[in-house]
Design a protein that fits this description.
Distance between the termini of chain A: 54 Å
Oligomer: homodimer
Largest interface: A-B, 50 and 50 residues
Strand content of chain A: 15-25%
Largest sheet of chain A: 4 strands, antiparallel
Number of strands of chain A: 11
Radius of gyration of chain A: 19 Å
Order of helices and strands of chain A: HHEEEEEEEEHHHEHHEEH
Structural class of chain A: alpha+beta
Shape of chain A: globular
Strand order of the largest sheet of chain A: 1-8-3-6
Number of helices of chain A: 8
Amino acid sequence: MANLADHGNQVACAACVMSPLCNSRAVANGAPSPVELRRRIAAGERFYEAGSGRDTIFALRAGFAQVSLDDGHGTHVVRFLLPGDAAGLDSFAGGAHRTETIALEDCEVCVIPAYRTELLGRYSEATCVRMRELLSIQLAEAESHAAMLARLTAPQRVARFLLDLSRRWADRGYSSTHYKLPMGRRAIGQHLALTTETVSRMLSDFQAKSWVDLPWREVRILGMEKLRELLAGTPEGKAHQQ
Amino acid sequence: MANLADHGNQVACAACVMSPLCNSRAVANGAPSPVELRRRIAAGERFYEAGSGRDTIFALRAGFAQVSLDDGHGTHVVRFLLPGDAAGLDSFAGGAHRTETIALEDCEVCVIPAYRTELLGRYSEATCVRMRELLSIQLAEAESHAAMLARLTAPQRVARFLLDLSRRWADRGYSSTHYKLPMGRRAIGQHLALTTETVSRMLSDFQAKSWVDLPWREVRILGMEKLRELLAGTPEGKAHQQ
DNA sequence: CGTGCAGTTGAACGGGGTCAAGTGGCGTGG
DNA sequence: CCACGCCACTTGACCCCGTTCAACTGCACG
C-alpha cells in the first residue's frame, strides 16, 4: 500500500467529506468505523453500476472519477469526483443506485456500507446530521447544475466548468491555476450538454485568447478574471435576464 | 379552518412525504411533533426567500407552489410542488435557503423547524432514515431533471412535463388524465429551459394532434401513449443516442 | 504499416430563440 | 355601461448558436 499516492493527487482524511463520520465520538468510544474496507479501482473500472450495488457509499481517497446517469436518451455525466468527494448517496432512495460511477484514473476508495452509517447514527447524532448535510449539499449542486444547463451559453458553460474545477482543487490545497483534466472532451460535453466539437472549439478559442494553456489533459489558467467576466456576462457578453 | 379544502386538491396526512415523522413511535411516546404550526399562504406569497429563513422545512398540505433558483443569470424553476410534497430540504447545507418557494395558488403548509427533526432524530432512528430518503429522492430527481435538460428536445420536454404531472397526481389518488395547470407558460418555460413562445407552440401542436385538450389552465390528456412514444422517441422521432 | 480513437477544424443545417403583431380576458375608472 | 390598459397567451417571420457531417492530424496499438 506504500505507493498508492503515486497515482496522482491524494487527500488526507481530514479533507474528506466523510471524515466527521470516521472521526465521530461514537467511533472513538468503540462503535464500528463506517469504512468497511479500502479498495483500489483501476482506470475504466466501475465503483458500482446502475441498478446494482444497493446501499453502498464510496469516499474517493485518490484518483478521479465520473458519475453518470443513463435514462434511455443517452448518457449524462452528473458530476466529476475529486479526492475527498463522496459517491453513491443517491442510493438511499430505494436501495439501488440509479447512476454509475467510473474511475477515470486509478483510484483508491473507502467503501462504506449504508447500514454502517445507520448503525453509527444510533450512537451519534452528529452522523445523522452530517449525512443530511452531505445530501443537502449534493442536492444544491444538482439544482445549480440544472440551472446552469438552463441558462448558460456554450462558452459560459466551459468557463464555469474550468472555474469550478479550479475552486475545488484549491479547496483541497492544490493549485487553482494548474491542474489535470483527466476526462476526455466527450465526457466534458456529456457533463455540460454540449458536443465534443463544441467543447473543443470553446477550449481552442480560450487558448487563442490566451486565457488558458492546454497541454495534453491539463489546464493552466492564465486569465482567471477573463473567464469570470465571461461567465458573469459583463462587458459586451450580455447576460440575458428573464 | 373548516373550508381550507375548498382551495383545490388536498391530501390526507397519510399521503404526505413527512408522515413517517409525524407518526413516528417517538411522537406517539410523547416526543414533540415535528410540525410547529400550520399556515395558510396566499397565491403569490412566499414560503421562504432565498438567503433567509434558515433551517425551516415545509410540507404542502393543499395548493400548488414552485421552487425556484436565481443564480444571477435568470430564474430557473427547480420543481413544482403538489400537495404532499416537501420544500426547503436544501437548507441543511449552511442553514440558509438558496432557493425560494412561491405559492401559485392559495396554500396550506405544515411548518417544520429543522431543529425539531434533529430533536426527533435523537429518539427515533426512523426519522433520520426518512430524512435521508427524502433528500436522496430529491437528489435523484434533480439529477434526472438535469439529464432531461441535457438530452431532450423541446417537444419531448413538454411531453415529459405533462406525463410527470399526470403520474404525480395519480400517485395522490387523483385523475391522471385531467388536472389543473396552475402555473403560467413562462413558469413552465423556466422549468424546462424553453421560452414561453416555444412552450405555447408545443402545447398548441399537441392540441392540434388531439393528444391533449387545453382549457384555461387545465390539461386533459387524450393520447397518453402518443406522448410516451414522443418522449421515448419511437417511430420516426429518432432518439439520439451518444 | 494499418487500424482506431481522441482531438481539431471547417462548412452547412436546423431547432429553438428573438422580435413583433395580434387576441382575449379582466380589472379599473370615466 | 364602455374605454382603456395590462397581462397571459398565441402565432408568424427571421435569425443565430450549437449541432451535424465531414475531412484531417497525431498518437497508440498490433
